[in-house]
Write a structure and sequence with these properties.
Elements: H1 3-8, H2 28-55, H3 60-70, H4 82-92, H5 100-114, H6 150-153, H7 157-167, H8 173-188, H9 193-206, H10 212-218, H11 220-230, H12 240-258, H13 266-291, H14 296-303, H15 306-313, H16 321-329, H17 345-364, H18 373-389, H19 396-412, H20 420-427, H21 443-448, H22 451-460
InterPro entries: ARM-type_fold, Tti2
Family: Belongs to the TTI2 family.
Pfam family, one: Tti2
């Protein structure tokens, strides 16, 4: 049996083209059939590994076929079992340092034909450069979504692209640009979130090695910026939190690559500021926090990215101090009298994330935070008293978060130790536990401890 015949047995069923999550329970026949196939493909991969061990050196064409079939099993996609992943990783161990000729062959002879009929309307397929206008006119972008047969034949093609960008060295991007950008942009701008997520993963990995000058020279930097910023309006989808969690760091990484803070002219500094403000100000504060205010998972996903954005902006983040403080304090306030507070794990995680981000905001904007010190102290005190009076709602990590915020605030505004805190303690004796020695709790500890470790340390303070 030849290598090609063995590889044909690993072809992913077309049912996985749009099936990224578990099928509906009522579709029992499909579940059974796909479960049987997953067991069989693991056996086929083991047979392939055994065959390759004694097959000798493969030709470049055979290696290329091997990569495009097997790389689709390296990941956590629905068609990948733990055993299949282990077998695929074992097979690909022989290609941890592939030659440029092999990568070129994979992209040119395997990946490129898959997307031949699905060229991104803003990309020149021959050069990988951005087009000045949409090919095909105003409706040209619709051609990208029409008859996407590649999803049925190669639903795991993003894993192959990821394999490629992992192994492409910085000097080689120039010669491979026209092969890597068209399919990556097709993934990044796909209408299905599952494929968009994978496109962002490929872009994020690519940014670790791609020369920034190549991005600028080809105009692809603007295409990527536009696509990534477009994810900020992709709301009310089950995968929105995951999408935001990887898209926002990718935007910041792209900004840091193209506009590194240590080597900026005045004009470039303004560009960096504008880019980051468009994400934090227009994307998160002005859009997501307004239109998805009741979606706890989405709000938490953005709050988790606040430290990254605030630290990237530095002192310029004071521009958004008011909306940041108000949003981050909102989950801390106890419910109105007679209203039962939500103590679900999701709600508690939101409070923990808010406290962690609030501490970063206080430290970064310490020169201006004094205008909000009483508002912050009020929310912290109310939350602490509520936690103290309602043991069923008490979470050690929330207590540690409150301690960290108070520590950060006392460092930024030392006068609260003399004036504001004594007044609060006289009104609420329960606050005696939060204000003394608050500086010993660090944000790093808050982010790295388990619930049991947090419980033990919070009780010792």
């Amino acid at each position: 049996m030849t290598t090609e015949e063995l590889l044909k047995r690993t072809q992913i069923p077309p049912e996985y083209a749009h099936l990224w999550d578990t099928p509906p329970p009522e579709n029992i026949d499909l579940l059974v059939r796909l479960g049987k196939w997953k067991a069989e493909v693991s056996r086929h991969l083991r047979d392939l590994a055994s065959y390759l061990a004694s097959a000798g050196r493969l030709s470049t064409e055979e290696q290329s076929l091997l990569v495009i079939h097997i790389a689709q099993y390296v990941g956590h996609d629905p068609w990948v079992s733990d055993d299949a992943r282990s077998q695929a990783e074992y097979i690909l161990e022989n290609y941890v340092s592939p030659s440029v000729s092999l990568i070129t062959d994979v992209l040119s002879n395997q990946v490129r034909p898959v997307f031949q009929s699905h060229i991104h309307p803003r990309v020149n397929a021959s050069t990988g450069r951005a087009l000045s206008r949409v090919a095909g006119g105003p409706l040209g972008s619709q051609d990208l979504y029409a008859s996407q047969s590649w999803k049925e034949t190669h639903p795991g093609i993003s894993s192959v692209l990821f394999w490629a960008v992992v192994h492409i060295k910085s000097p080689d991007y120039d010669r491979l640009w026209h092969l890597i950008i068209p399919p990556v942009m097709a993934l990044l701008d796909d209408y299905e979130v599952a494929y968009k997520l994978r496109g962002i993963s490929v872009i994020s990995r690519m940014l670790k090695a791609v020369p920034p000058d190549l991005l600028r020279r080809t105009g692809v930097d603007e295409l990527i910026f536009s696509s990534l910023e477009g994810t900020l309006v992709f709301l009310h989808n089950p995968k929105t939190p995951e999408l935001l969690s990887i898209a926002i760091p990718a935007i910041v990484e792209l900004v840091d690559l193209l506009l590194p803070i240590r080597a900026l002219s005045k004009e470039q500094g303004k560009q960096r500021f504008d880019r980051l403000c468009s994400v934090l100000g227009e994307g998160i504060i002005g859009s997501i926090w307004v239109h998805a205010s009741r979606d706890v998972a989405t709000i938490r996903a953005t709050i988790d990215q606040v430290p990254l954005l605030v630290e990237s902006l530095g002192v310029c983040a004071v521009r958004y101090l008011k909306p940041l403080v108000l949003q981050l304090l909102d989950p801390l306030y106890p419910p109105a009298s007679g209203v039962q507070r939500t103590v679900s794990p999701e709600a508690n995680e939101l409070r923990i994330s808010s406290l962690r981000s609030l501490s970063t905001v206080i430290k970064t904007c310490h020169d201006r935070i004094h205008t909000w010190k009483k508002t912050i102290l009020d929310a912290v005190a109310r939350c602490w008293v509520y936690e103290f009076e309602n043991p069923e709602a008490n979470t050690p990590m929330i207590r540690l978060g409150l301690l960290e915020v108070t520590s950060s605030l006392s460092s930024a505004c030392p006068n609260i130790l003399e004036y504001d805190i004594p007044r609060l303690k006289s009104a609420y004796p329960a606050l005696d536990d939060i204000f003394p020695q608050v500086a010993q709790v660090t944000n790093q500890e808050l982010g790295g401890d388990t619930e049991d470790e947090c419980s033990a340390r919070s009780q010792s303070i």
